[in-house]
UniProtKB/TrEMBL annotation:
Organism: Rurimicrobium arvi
Name of the protein in question: Threonine--tRNA ligase
Subcellular location: Cytoplasm
Keyword Ligase listed: yes
Keywords: Aminoacyl-tRNA synthetase, ATP-binding, Coiled coil, Cytoplasm, Ligase, Metal-binding, Nucleotide-binding, Protein biosynthesis, RNA-binding, tRNA-binding, Zinc
Chain residues that bind Zn(2+): 337, 388, 518
Catalysed reactions, semicolon-separated: tRNA(Thr) + L-threonine + ATP = L-threonyl-tRNA(Thr) + AMP + diphosphate + H(+)
Cofactors that this protein relies on: Zn(2+)
Keyword check for RNA-binding: yes
Gene: thrS
Amino acid sequence: MIKITFPDGAVREYQPGTSSMDIAKSISEGLARKVLAAEIDGEIWDASRPLDKDAAIRFLTWDDKGGKSTFWHSSAHLLAEAIEAIFPGTKFGIGPAIDNGFYYDLDLGGAALGEEDLAKIEKKMKELAAQKNEYKRQEVAKADAIQYFTEKADPYKIELLQDLEDGKITFYTQGAFTDLCRGPHIPNTGFIKAVKLTNIAGAYWRGDEKNKMLTRIYGVTYPSQKELDEYLALLEEAKKRDHRKLGKELELFTFSEKVGAGLPMWLPKGAMLRQRLQDFLQKAQIESGYLPVITPHIGNINLYKTSGHYEKYGADSFQSIKTPHEGEEFFLKPMNCPHHCEIYKSSPRSYKDLPLRLAEFGTVYRYEQSGELHGLTRVRGFTQDDAHLFCRPEQVLEEFKKVIDLVMYVFSSLNFENFTAQISLRDKVNREKYIGSEENWQIAENSIIAAAAEKGLSTVIEYGEAAFYGPKLDFMVKDALGRSWQLGTIQVDYNLPERFELEYVDADNTRKRPVMIHRAPFGSMERFVAVLLEHCAGNFPAWLAPEQVKVLPISDKYSEYAHEVAKMLKAADLRASVDDRNEKIGKKIRDTELMKVPYMLVVGEQEMTGNKVAVRKHGEGDKGVMDTVEFVAMLREIVQEQTAGTKK
């Protein structure tokens, strides 16, 4: 018999060869109807795959991230089956699940797809799904796999097979379609009830611009039509909130092909917004004992070889920069931490100096593939609100908790109320991608788990999501549309201090290694602004808005008074300007609404005579007439309340 351990710690015995689905049925038929896959010792398996040894099990349903991913990957295979039925001879690339749905890369032999084709493919997918065909897993020898795809004339699969190890190759078949795939998959196609193909795009094979451009079809599927309809309605709202659209309308940032893809340029209003965010965090950091530092945008290549970043990020970075001095090479920095390690090392350190908290808004560079670039969320140059805390081992837990407090302050000040703290740990099986000793990793992981528990955070554990040098606490924030974004991150690192030979002299006069904590509450300024834009639909809180007040004179006669009001606002450290265009007041109000300025002050004869202003609030309209001094005091109080957050 084999022993199966459930998430609650209960253990049951089953016959070898029992599948996860069999186990689910032994508990209840209702549970079995919901099971899409199972997590076996931390690895996701087909629910139908037999178990032959003791294992820990967790059933995955539509409500689980792993369940959705399995559902959508299986849907990609269903898409491929439909494509092959409608367009025989199609050659297939890859078809993974993504955050919201799936895609498949196809070589259609030059044929172009249109909207009418997508409708035809959707119909075929629904027809095939209704057949409830099982996803059948088959282990295949490498030679047999190559022969199969050679006979099928599918060069992309043959190329993928070259990189795979014999004895670890599997095929999956559903209905009339067979694919090279590691899996896992849902039990059968009948779980897929609703289908929508959302987009057609081009994608270079394997992300290499030297390779052929394939057709990429994006889609999403759901277990019910109602859920799909709700998602599509959300998608429409998301289009209105797209940060690329809003960024252009609100004149925040721009891109230029001449400057280079993935390299954003901040326009005046965007720069003011970004500066406000930076000032906000910088003030909180100084109050928390952080020291500002500035490091270069490049570093000697040996710096990144020492840190391990060259080995891990070299392929995703810009090529090294050669100087006139033979053999000398520099690298655009992909991370700030190696520079901060060298700053730590620049002076002898005592245990009395620790914790040492170094903070920098440092710009880093990574060469993202052109097909992966997306507005401000995926760029090639971005600024991290980076800090590195060097502390004694016994200080780690307390320092980690203080960083959590800082992240909470940021989120509360920006109305990010719905979030989960993801404890990102090493892969349970594959340890090769991580550096450092098992002992240090265990201590680091335990520190994060303890800090999150003491702070009462709502947490989930994700294995395999740790950085190569240490475990993390990643903050997964849900925006106003319910979409999840990874923003702030805190990481414990015993390894870089080892690689850089960092030391401090302890109270007993012995030399010891400090521990590093990496943290970035925003993550990156670019990504944070993008998420914030979409979260609030461009309606920034008054403290953050690039322009807080627009003064609108009814006619030229009141322009001078309008400028006096603006001057009074500016003297109170409020951002204001005057719209003294020769336009009707109705148009001025409409234009200011479109620019999402939080407050409008309309001034005419009555206001000028009484030193008053007619107040309008964005999205809410007329708020009545107020004394100018009273309005200034009110807005200052609003701004102070908004930035109070839950500060330490």
